[in-house]
From TrEMBL:
It comes from Pigmentiphaga soli. Gene3D superfamilies: Metal-dependent hydrolases. Signal peptide: none annotated. InterPro entries: Amidohydro-rel, Aro_Compnd_Degr_Hydrolases, Metal_Hydrolase. It comes from the Bacteria. This is Amidohydrolase.
Length: 296
């Protein structure tokens, strides 16, 4: 159980990111975008939901931007973390207060959200809603069609965190939604099943349809190995080969709740040299695709 400090702040139950970001060997193209990161804290100003699964240490905007600038990344997308459930205050404040770095956001809401609030979020920089089908922290799967209809006029997308075994059953839903769908973290498919595994085959079909995007992020969550997560590389390469115009890249900073050694973000960045060896394709994934999806 978390312990309260003297100031009433709950002590972290998970580690924070490596603060000493290494400058990557790989030079990223101008306009590169990190499409998935979380801002949390300070806890005394932005208290966490009492039903959260974990308590993170602070991961603040200045630290995030310092990390990105070390990598050579010039744009970012902030995703509402589960510790705040549907209270998007921390996300929206980060978007509104950051005037010296282009940021967009992905919020988490429920069906009680009003249209005026959605428009206000759009003005702040939100460009999508996240539906987490693994953890109950906002909109559920049955809310997705209604929410999709409401955000379609705004040009938003739905981002889903989904168990890979549910790809096949969710396929009919995804194909009928009036908005694009973004799938987190390389789909999280079981690497032991190989490239011919049923879950990965469905994921390839989804991206080939032109309706789904995949974030090439958090390989440590999917890998059965420690860095450099070589068992994940063939899956990334297969996805890029199947639909280079539907791939996105992300750091997943500050790497919450991972069970492997905390990676350095410079090392994660350098994985791109093996993941996407063609510089022209790498530019599409890092620059052109996120510019199109998030409206930079």
């Amino acid at each position: 159980m978390s312990q309260l400090s003297a100031a009433g702040v709950v002590a972290p139950t998970i580690p924070g990111p490596d603060p000493d970001t290494r400058k990557p060997r790989l030079a990223l193209p101008p306009g590169s975008c990190d499409t998935h990161a979380h801002i949390v804290g300070p806890q005394d100003k932005y208290p966490y939901d009492p039903n959260r699964r974990y308590t993170p240490p602070d991961a603040l905007v200045p630290d995030y931007l310092k990390m990105l600038r070390t990598l050579g990344v010039e744009r970012g997308v902030l995703v509402q973390p589960s510790v705040y459930m549907t209270d998007n205050t921390r996300l929206l404040d980060a978007l509104r207060e950051t005037t010296d770095f282009p940021l967009r956001g992905v919020a988490v809401v429920n069906d009680a959200i009003g249209d005026d609030e959605l428009r206000s979020m759009h003005e702040a920089g939100v460009r999508g809603l996240r539906v987490n089908l693994r953890v109950s922290n906002g909109a559920s799967a049955d809310m997705a069609p209604q929410l999709a209809r409401r955000i379609a006029p705004l040009g938003w997308h739905l981002q889903v965190r989904i168990d890979p075994k549910d790809f096949a059953s969710a396929r009919s839903l995804i194909e009928t939604l009036p908005v694009d769908v973004v799938i987190d973290h390389i789909g999280g498919v079981p690497v032991r099943d190989g490239l011919d595994g049923p879950d990965f085959r469905v994921l390839l079909e989804l991206v080939a349809s032109g309706r789904c995007w995949v974030k090439l992020s958090a390989p440590m969550r999917m890998s059965e190995e420690e860095f450099p997560y070589r068992d994940v590389t063939p899956f990334v390469q297969a996805l890029v080969a199947a639909a280079p115009d539907r791939m996105l890249w992300a750091t997943d900073w500050p790497h919450t709740t991972i069970t492997k050694r905390m990676p350095n973000d410079g090392d994660l960045c350098d994985l791109l040299a093996d993941w996407i060896p063609d510089p022209a394709v790498r530019r599409r994934v890092l620059v052109d695709n996120p510019a199109r999806l998030y409206g930079f």
